[in-house]
Amino acid sequence: MRIKFLGTAAAEGVPAVFCNCPTCVKARQKGGKNIRTRSQILIDDDTLFDFPMDTYMHMLVHGFDLSAVKRVLISHSHMDHCYPQELCMRGAPFAKNMTEPRIAVYCNATVREMILADTGREIRPEIAATVDIKTLHPYDDLMSDDMRIIALPARHTKGEECLVYYVERGGAGALFLNDTGRLDGEVYARLKAMGAKVHFAALDCTYGNGSGTSGRHMGLVDVVEQLKLIDGAGLLAQDPIVYATHFSHNNDFDFDEMSEKAAAYGILVAYDGCTADVNA
Ligand SMILES: [Zn+2]
Ligand SMILES: [Zn+2]
Ligand SMILES: [Zn+2]
């Protein structure tokens, strides 16, 4: 699998949309890897993890064919992870010569309702007919063509069944763990029992070098603890690739400073555009 981070920020972005705090001022000045758009990951040019409002910009900046994406895995309904209105543009007369005529959207029941409500006013019936919304629950385990998808229960927000995902292709397994607070070892034990193996992991690091006291996000301290649990469950492959992602402007550190702190634990800091080749 080739995994590409298209966006690596929390909801407000870094710099944040309306913010002039020292971190955002510094990010604007330094630019480069300090500029973070809303979280999204592209897998092998045919699968997206999350669908934020920055999806269109990600297509422009990273130059991939958005019409070739066959499936989207959505974590939850927050706007930095799900901007369904864009799906209205997925068909004639707004889109022509698309590579893939259909798209599958995997999500929880709340996101399903949100997609139907938010696209309802504008989507053409013939376009709506090409969007297959598939409702998932924690521990659902399915194949989508040659990709295995396992939904896992996130610890994030009340009122919906927030999901994180394990994805496997060609024997290589990847864990996408945002947005979530610390997960119990039980989650990883169940994933292990399902035959998963983790060659790649991207974990929520909204709190930067700190800890996710809110319980709905994590910091580096929590990422390190989660890695121990993942390893303890026997899930980690040899020499796994581990990234921290989903950073907030409330984290004081810039990319270089954060990378130095994470490197002490063998963890990489994701940035917009960074790519990992994940092999079994
Ligand atoms: Zn988020
Ligand atoms: Zn700020
Ligand atoms: Zn969220």
What does the model show?
The strands form two sheets. The protein has a seven-stranded mixed β-sheet with strand order 6-5-4-3-2-1-14. Strands 7-8-9-10-11-12-13 form a seven-stranded mixed β-sheet. Helix 5 links the parallel strand 10 (172-177) and strand 11. The protein is 23% helix and 26% strand. The protein has a single domain, classed as Ribonuclease Z/Hydroxyacylglutathione hydrolase-like (Metallo-beta-lactamase, Chain A, 4-Layer Sandwich). It is an alpha/beta fold. It has helices spanning 22-30, 55-62, 109-120, 125-128, 185-193, 220-232, 255-263, and strands at 2-7, 40-43, 47-49, 71-73, 103-107, 131-135, 141-144, 147-153, 163-169, 172-177, 198-204, 236-245, 268-269, 275-277. The structure holds zinc ion (ZN) (3 copies). One zinc ion binds at residues 15-16, 19, 21, 23-24, 249. The site of one zinc ion (ZN) has 7 residues, from helix 1.
